[in-house]
Amino acid sequence: MSEEPVVIFKSVSKIYQMGEVSIPALNNVSLSIPKRRFSMVLGPSGSGKTTLLNLIGCLDQPTNGTIEICGEKIAAISDDMMSDFRAQNIGFIFQNFNLIPVLTAFENVEYPLTLLGMSPSIRREKSLSILESVGLKDHARHRPNQLSGGQKQRVAIARALVKGPMLVLADEPTANLDSKTGASIIDLMYTIQEQYGATFVFSTHDPQLISHAQDVFSIRDGELIEHHTERG
Ligand SMILES: Nc1ncnc2c1ncn2[C@@H]1O[C@H](COP(=O)(O)OP(=O)(O)OP(=O)(O)O)[C@@H](O)[C@H]1O
Ligand SMILES: [Mg+2]
After folding, report:
1. How far is CA 154 from CA 22, 79, 122, 195, in A?
2. How far is CA 72 from each of CA 75, 77, 116, 166, rounded to the nearest angstrom?
3. 3-state secondary structure string, 106-145?
4. Mutation test residue for ligand 1: of 15, 40, 41, 50, the one with most atoms within 8 Å of CB
């Protein structure tokens, strides 16, 4: 862990405002997400995992405290610059896969590259190569409803990684999978993380997945209660 962290939180709090009611979701969280590591955020339902990942992914701003990403304070960055930064540098993987139903596996993976304005031949090469890395080259023409849950999540992993992001965030990527498929998806993400050298953060409520992670951040009721290194 000699490298600079990718993301640094300093006394970050997030309070959601619903009319008159204030809902504290994160309370005074300070942490550093280590670069090129496979980190896990562990906590029960309602503990603040999604809130934390949304802040790490710059999808939301904190109520208090500061967040630095790659050494820059995000409060100082304009919304437009932030969207460009996200499009280029951050890949997202979701609990419910979020694939586009009318597109094939190949087209779902290719889509972020189209948004980045890449040429068709480069898009094709990159998309097929990453589909091969997740073991789905033979399923490139399948639509999401012709794939199993685990296969859908592998397409989503390929889509998140195809643009070569420095940071990949996965919010409960195994929640809709049985435990065996879930564990294999986490292991696939780990293999790919090593291969591509990205920084990876996934969240889960399942303590059984701890042994699959390198760094573990445990949260409870919006507070970081423990950070430990599980493996090197
Ligand atoms: N947009 C919102 N508006 C108001 N309150 C919210 C909002 N999003 C989350 N909360 C509240 O903030 C707290 C943390 O929610 P969060 O979704 O981050 O938890 P979580 O750990 O991801 O839970 P789960 O495992 O169920 O997905 C909860 O009390 C939740 O009800
Ligand atoms: Mg959540």
Report:
1. 38, 30, 21, 15
2. 9, 8, 23, 15
3. HHHHHHHHHHCCCCHHHHHHHHHHHHHHCCCHHHCCCCHH
4. 50
Question: Does the predicted TM-score (pTM) go above 0.85?
Answer: yes
Ligand 1 atom having least distance to the Cα of 53: 18
- 34-44 pLDDT, tens digit each: 999 999 999 99
**CATH code given to domain 7-226:** 3.40.50.300
Q: For residue 2, name the pLDDT band (cuts at 50, 70, 90).
A: low
Domains of the chain, by residue range, sit at 7-226
* 3-class state of residue 104 by DSSP: coil
Q: Which atom of ligand 1 is nearest to the CA of 52?
A: 18
